[in-house]
Amino acid sequence: TPAAPPVETQTRRADGSTVDAGTVRIPPTYQQQPAVQVVVRDITSRKRVEEALRSSAERYRGIVERATDAMYLVSETGMLTDANPATLAITGWSLEEILSKNFIELIHPDDRSRARALFLSSVDEAQREPEVLRIRTPSGDYVYLEMMTTPVVQQAGDRALFGIGRDLTAARKAAPQIRFQASLLANARNA
Predict the structure, then answer these.
(1) Which of 14, 20, 135, 155 is the most buried (most CB within 10 A)?
(2) Which distant-in-sequence residues (6+ apart) come within 8 Å of 41 by Cβ?
(3) DSSP conformation letters of 136-151
């Protein structure tokens, strides 16, 4: 008969304290008779580490979900593998749409060679300076994102890039008007 699957329980020590225990029942024979051997192992520290990881992951997910900046993951092959709600709001893509795309498809044609170089250098080393790239929306318009990326290793051991992007579109569109108004003000002062 095969061994029973492991069972996790809580049990009391002789001093009355509680301990997480992993038990395995092994069906050996003893003196040619069926017997039961139970192995109990203290797994308290493993359970604490698992809970700390779960709690950390929940906090991280909460921060990413509530952030107003775009946050996304890009696989080593260039496919977008995750995006927070801000990424979707800024770009106008749905999660399903964005996850079906290679990041380069979303980059303005004039920015693609710079984006490829940035991607290739960032796979091994965190980006040192922010880079502004134009990202295509579903309507064909472009938004300006100031982006920073850093390499990460995911749970399965796969490497990816974690990126954060700040939407600069409104500031970029307002810049010519601000320059014009500044020149009017300078001319008025000189008159």
Answers:
(1) 135
(2) 21, 22, 23
(3) E-TTS-EEEEEEEEEE
Report the C-alpha gap between 184 and 190 in whole angstroms. Answer: 10
Closest CA to 71 of 122, 145, 158: 145
Which range of 50-54, 58-62, 71-75 scores highest in mean pLDDT? It is: 71-75
Backbone angles phi, psi at 73, to 5 degrees: -120, 140
Tokens linked to 77:
């092959």
Q: What is the pTM for the complete model shown? A: 0.67
**Calpha distance 59→52 (Å, rounded):** 11
Kindly state the DSSP code that residue 3 receives in the 8-state scheme. Answer: P
Q: What strands, in cross-sheet order, belong to the sheet with 7-12?
A: 7-12, 18-26, 37-42
